[in-house]
Amino acid sequence: MTYLITGIPKDTNEESPIRQDVDDWYLEQTGPSGNRIQLTLFVEALIIMQNRSTTDDLSYFGLAGIHGAPWSGWGGQTSDHQTKDENFCVHNDYTFPTWHRVYMALFEQVVYEAMTEFINDKVPTEWQTECHKEAKTWRLPYWDFARFARGTNEIRLPIIATIPMVTINVFGSPVSTQRKSNPLYKFQTESLMGDLGIRDQGEEGPFHKCRSTTRYGLLDGYNEDVWADGGQNWLRANLALNEHPWNRDPTVWEGFRTLQEAVFQLLKTSGGSWSSFSSTKYKEGSEQKGYTNLEFIHNNIHNWVGGFLFRRPTASSRLKLWGGGHMASVSVAAFDPIFWLHHCNIDRLTAIWQKLNNSSWFDGDSEGVHHSQLTPFHNRNGNLFVSDDVRNWTDLNYDYAITKKDEKDIRDDIATLYALEGSPFQINIFFGQPDGKDFHDLGSRNFVASVFNFSSAIKNSNCGNCIEQKKRGIYSEAQLPATLAVWSHQELEKTNKEPEVFYVVVNSRGESVTLDDEAITVDLYRINEGRGVDSPEDHRYKKAVNGRRATVDY
Amino acid sequence: MTYLITGIPKDTNEESPIRQDVDDWYLEQTGPSGNRIQLTLFVEALIIMQNRSTTDDLSYFGLAGIHGAPWSGWGGQTSDHQTKDENFCVHNDYTFPTWHRVYMALFEQVVYEAMTEFINDKVPTEWQTECHKEAKTWRLPYWDFARFARGTNEIRLPIIATIPMVTINVFGSPVSTQRKSNPLYKFQTESLMGDLGIRDQGEEGPFHKCRSTTRYGLLDGYNEDVWADGGQNWLRANLALNEHPWNRDPTVWEGFRTLQEAVFQLLKTSGGSWSSFSSTKYKEGSEQKGYTNLEFIHNNIHNWVGGFLFRRPTASSRLKLWGGGHMASVSVAAFDPIFWLHHCNIDRLTAIWQKLNNSSWFDGDSEGVHHSQLTPFHNRNGNLFVSDDVRNWTDLNYDYAITKKDEKDIRDDIATLYALEGSPFQINIFFGQPDGKDFHDLGSRNFVASVFNFSSAIKNSNCGNCIEQKKRGIYSEAQLPATLAVWSHQELEKTNKEPEVFYVVVNSRGESVTLDDEAITVDLYRINEGRGVDSPEDHRYKKAVNGRRATVDY
Ligand SMILES: [Cu+2]
Ligand SMILES: [Cu+2]
């Protein structure tokens, strides 16, 4: 069988429907004005796929199996990778984003086809037209793992990935609802996965003894019955996503502060190189890579979601975050349903980066591989895909809301999601250098004021003298009154000179953060007020002092 | 209906079958020579009970409802408690152990009757005799929450409480197995629990929005769909059971170091008072209570298992252990199936204490209530139980292995489970006082040697001079050679005098522990060896120095 990957069919004159943020989508589907139709179709389609024979290429097991275990080939192709696991999927190489782009499109297309099957077989005639319409505009939702959960300042797994039971429609007159086991919560098999070709993954975990995907449920020294369905300890995943620095290896992690900062760094470049962006691959002798890249961020999410410590840490370590799970092992990661939501976001980040680095494509070290075949995936012409086929993702009949925008608006969105409102950065301002480690608040030496979440600060402040913050590409401005502070400073220092202005950017963990120099500007402005000032020019603020980034120890 | 609580029926000449440690029982049932019969019967009986109408007094819901919500009365009785929740169950009072003793016997009896129903209705004739025999000797197993999981030095929830699916028998020829949803993992309802009379518990959690019991799954600020079946984040419970001191309130927790130490302290007394032992109740003006008591230990287990922080801690706190669950709320705790395993152990600890404090019963402040009615429970004569009816627990046709032993052997067991091998206490020995905070190892000032896990140390050491450890009631002895250490010490100090001997007891977290003075003795012994020593008396060790507990800062 040669399965042709085309994306979900659409008329050529229609715009590509968008892939949505999974929490936004879920909240819209289940909210007061939501009709739950797409939710029902997605859930029922996944149930159909998960119930198909594991030897069926288009079963959930068959599709997930392309990524690694059980290494049994797919669509008539056997793997041409000569790695020990002989898996098709590409990691640590420049086709990492493009191979997975096609993989997601395949999954999306098979889900759509299962939706159609469900509608034709199980939905009463009077509902079929509406359901087909919803299926046609449905696209795989993405988990924006660097965006705080709605109304919180915390990163979390998607709602739909953490609920064991999901409420969906029973179509009829009237429409009622039912609760079903949620196929996005976990994937369960009838047989031991070992009997389906899933091998022991050694240090990563005894996945052959599982009958269900698990998050942090494989624990060395636990009775083996616990492993079979180790359960979904998803609070541990949430903890890891927010507190991952405990695992920091200084040689690898330098500058990798929070997930939001990492994604912001990844996307803020322009004129970047595909070789640097796309993969963790490092060719000896080539230029130093950027300090982060797509695949590196992606790898960490895998680890934090699944759990990557099957063996218990030494007695002196704390128990915190001990445990293994499917997402942390390349060979079995795709069996956990959250894999698809995760990789959909990886594709979205790729698309965003492409829009901002329009002319960048396989270049330098990566130039040679844009014609490499993305085995085992066949395009609409029956040929194996190459990366060039999917440079334009809309050829696969989907898009993202953000990539429909122009560059300026994309940069605004990025800042909103990952740098400004999304992340509680705080700028602390000092007249004179602060102390090296004490740069947090009122009690710190030379402290003047803080700006917290730029945009809201603008709304709330009655401006006098000024601070201006600038982010590359976009500007967000806040102004704080400094008259009294300057006066006090001059009194204390017995001087008439303007104070030296310093600032420290502090992240949500109270650590100082170094953004690039152009990202932030903190300056002191003066205006002449009161009697004897007549010229309109004198009523304008004039920059009096250029602020500088303070030197702090951490 | 008046349901008479008699315990599981047995012939008067038979000994009472024992309630077993739940992990031991599960491992025996599922091990190579286990027949899984009792496991199958227990699971099937619970499924029957959980499927009964919630208005049936003998349904799982009906039995759990006696403890708190939905406050609808039971067995024809309405509550006589005038608390705001009008629940029957006794907390913060001296009948706490006896009320719950009858409650466990009731549950055990109803499970047995459901086993019988299952056997008669569903088991093929050729297996019925064997199954009835197993049901008759089955008793409710207990979760020994202060005992380390087998082969570990960590406290854990029982295996059977952490596996979503359980493998049980299908009786026939031959016997095969099947996997079923494990009724001890969680209790799930068809309706929202709010529709079954479970109210919002405010700070403790929105239990009315649940359809399943949860552990650490109720999280303020999470989408409400997550609450309905918040899942079983049981790794958080395990973490809390082992690392609870982070929650320590110094005014309450003084001396409460680990669960094992607490249980050891609870049981090591003799001639104790029921008033002190039984409850957290404190009558103003009465004598100072012992520093721990049964109900206090019990309360903490409830909190740690369920999760007791529905509202998120302040931003500066770590996320660690945030979350609420049924076990932490008196009103709904009994719905989590682990409740019964927990309270079975509370009953066992009571029975052990009774054996060791044979003449102690309701006394002092508690004397007046031994005739109070334990509503709504009726005894075999159709009267409401009073505490005196259950002073002898074997009248309810069950016993525990440990309480069949004599006092000396019970004390040995307690020490083994909770003080010696169970807990990795370490005794560090010094010639001269150690430094206040540095008392851990070779690098510490004046360090001589460590004794780790007394009994194994005895086996491994080639004895020379001696150390003797003594626990109240039992003795465990280890001997370490000190000849060279004494010689070095005398050389260094330029003295011929015997060294001063000090010791520090260190627990598994590296903290110094103060056991009572009689618990440990560390002394230095001498023997005269070599030529010129003829008298047999000279070949005996003689105590040279009395060791003392060192003064350390923590
Ligand atoms: Cu991958
Ligand atoms: Cu209780």
> Helicity level of chain A, as a percent range?
25-40%
Low-confidence stretches of chain A: 81-85, 245-256, 315-319, 420-424, 453-476
Determine Rg of chain A (CA atoms, Å).
27 Å
Terminus-to-terminus distance of chain A: 58 Å
Shape verdict of chain A: globular
CATH architecture classification name of the largest domain in chain A? Orthogonal Bundle
Please tally the helical runs of chain A, counting DSSP H or I stretches of 4 or more residues.
15
By CATH, the superfamily of the largest domain in chain A comes out as: Di-copper center containing domain from catechol oxidase
Distinct small-molecule ligands in the complex? copper (II) ion
Total of domains of chain A:
2
Mean pLDDT of chain A: 82
Describe the largest sheet of chain A. 5 strands, mixed
CATH topology of the largest domain in chain A: di-copper center containing domain from catechol oxidase
Beta-strand percentage range of chain A: 5-15%
Indicate the multimeric state.
homodimer
Largest binding interface between chains? A-B, 42 and 42 residues
Catalytic activity (chains A, B): L-tyrosine + O2 = L-dopaquinone + H2O; 2 L-dopa + O2 = 2 L-dopaquinone + 2 H2O
Protein name (chains A, B): tyrosinase
Domain Tyrosinase copper-binding (chains A, B): 91-108, 336-347
Family (chains A, B): Belongs to the tyrosinase family.
